[in-house]
Amino acid sequence: MKTKFSFNLFGSFRSMEQFMQQLPYAVLLTDQSGRIIECNEALLRVTGYTRQEIVGHHIHVIIPCQGTMEQLYREWTNKEWESPLEVEWQDKSGMTGRTNVMVLVQDAEDPLYLVHLLNLAKDSNDSLPQRLVTQLASDIYLGIVVLDRAAKIIEISQMACRLLGVERFNVLNQHIDKAFEGIPEEHRLIKRELLKGIKLQNKAMSWTNNSQRYELLVNSNTLHDEAGRIVGAYVLFKDVTNLRSFEQKIERSDRLAMIGQIAAGTAHEIRNPLTSIKGFLQLFLQSFGESGMERERTYTEIMLTEINRINSLVSEFLLLSKQRDVQYQIVDLNTVFEEILPIVNSEALLHGIDVQYLPAGQLPMVVGDTELLKQVFLNICKNGIEAMEKEGVLSISHHIDVEGDKISIDIHDTGPGIPVYVIDKIFDPFFTTKEEGTGLGLSVCQKIIHDLGGQIRVSSKGYGTSFHILLPYI
To answer: 105-115, pLDDT tens digit by residue?
Structure first.
C-alpha cells in the first residue's frame, strides 16, 4: 500500500511519538537517507531489538534493501500493484518474512517517512496467561519485571518504570546490566541473582529514586520449562509507602499519648513545689540585693533561671498531653511575620547570620491561633540559626502547595544539614542533638500545626535544611 498523504496533522514530534506508540502494529520513522529516527514498542516486541539497537541505524536492519528511503519510496510509488504493497522484513535473529507496508511522507523540504508494517502486530489470539501478564503490566499499582534466561527485560509495568526511574520503551529487550548501568549490582532492585533461584516472599525493602523514598513489599521467583530448566524470572513489588507512613504516625501518636498520660499525672505535682521554691528564691534575691551580698544574689538568679526552665519544660509536657484551648480566628500571616521578624533578626545578629525574608507577594489569611503560630515560626527559625553557628543565611519564603489547598511557609538554613539516619527522628519527643535541648520543641510545633489542620515537612540534602509549614488558607 502506498500513499503520499502528509502527516503534518500530527503536530509536534512529541505528538508523533505518542501517536506511534498507540498503533497496534509495528511502525518506524526515518529521514530521507533511511536512518531510523524513532520506532514503537510493537516493532521492538516483534523483532526482538532494543530501541538503542534500531534508532540511528539504516532501515535495512528491518527491511533488507539498498539505497535511501527517498529512493525506496519513489520506487514503491512508481510501481503499479494490484494488491497491497508487500516487502520482506527480518528480525534480530535473521529470520525473515513478508508484510504489507504503508508509507506516509511528510510534506516538507526535508521530509520524514512513517513506515507502517501492517502485518507485524501483536497476536490477537494471545493465550490467557499472556493476557494476564499484559494486564498486570498495565496495573498502575503493581510493579512487575519479567526477565528471560539471558537476563533481558521482556516485560515491565509502568509502575515499575516510574519507581525504577526508567522509560519502558528504552529498557524492553535490554539486558539488566545495560538498563540499570551506573547502579552497582548490590544496590539494584532487579539483580542477575534472580535467575539462580533466589526466592523472595513479602520482603520489606526501601528504595530511593530521585530523592524520593519508597517502602516496598517484594516477591520474586524463577520460571521453568517442562523439563524444570530455568527459562526466566519475575519480580513483583507493591508500594506500601503510604501504609508505612500511616503506621509511623500511629506509633508517634501512641508515644505522644503515653507522654501525655505521664505529664498529666505529674505536671501539677511538680508545679506546686516549684511555685513555693520560686517564691522563696525571689525573697532571697531581694534580701541579698538589699544586704549587698552580690555573690549570693548571683547564685539565686541562676537558680531562678533554672526554675523557670523547669516550668517551661512542664508547660511543653502539658501542651503535648492534652488538647489546648486553641483560639481559632482569622490570622493575617503578613502581620504575624511583621511581629516576629524583629525577634528573628535580633537572634540572627547575635550569631552573625543573615536573614532573608522573600515573600512572593501578600500572604493569604489562615484560620488558626496567632500566638501558637508565632511560637512555631520562632522555634524553627531559632533552630536554623543555631544550626549555622557563626555564618550563613536563613531564608523565609512561601508558595502554594502543589495540591492547591495549602500555603507552605518555607524556612531554609545553609547549615550542615540533617543526617539521613537522624531526619526521621527529629519530631520524636526527647530526641535532640543539642547539649541543653529538651527534645520537645519540634514535637510541640508538629502538634500545634496538626491541631490547625496542617503539616510540617522537612528536607535536607547534605547542605542546608528546609522546613515547610503547610496550612489551609482562606
So the answer is: 887 788 889 89
